[in-house]
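Hi everyone,

Forwarding the result from last night's run.
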Amino acid sequence: MPPIAGFWIPGAMPVQLLVVFASIFLIVIAMQALLKRIGTPVTPFWQVINLWLIIFTVFKWVITPPIPSSLLVMYMVPVTLILYVWISATKRSWEPFKSYALDTLTGANLHHRTLRAVIFVALPVVAAIMTYNQFKLPEYTAPPEFRTYHPAPPRTITVHGEVIDLQTARNPFRVTK
């Protein structure tokens, strides 16, 4: 059950979702301004990662009823593309993003080497866990003795007062050789 399930009002959910995203946007802007004021601004690389995680969290755990995973993937692909276009729209935001990503891939310093090691270990582990969860057998299969099967047809039926023996009757519509 989503944590704020009582928040949603039937019929007003689209407007409420816009209010949730606007609130998140304002909170993120306020936090970035506060971090910039104290001297530790958020780099564009981490801005994109944090925004992607926030949007994923809203789609996965805030929206009620929960959306199916296939729909979640279909929503997150355009979100990823939009964030990429947004970060690469200006040279001022693209250069720090690109340099941080390249420094992480090349291992420019200890911080980047640690982040690279975590990413290259965590991503395959997460992929393996997701693959295992996708293909494992469910734990709640019905025991075979409780399964019900369709009963066999009766030997005879009555149609318009005429008794027809189903085992010996001839079907006039079936072509026999």
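The CA atoms of residues 9 and 15 lie 10 Å apart.

Cheers,
N.
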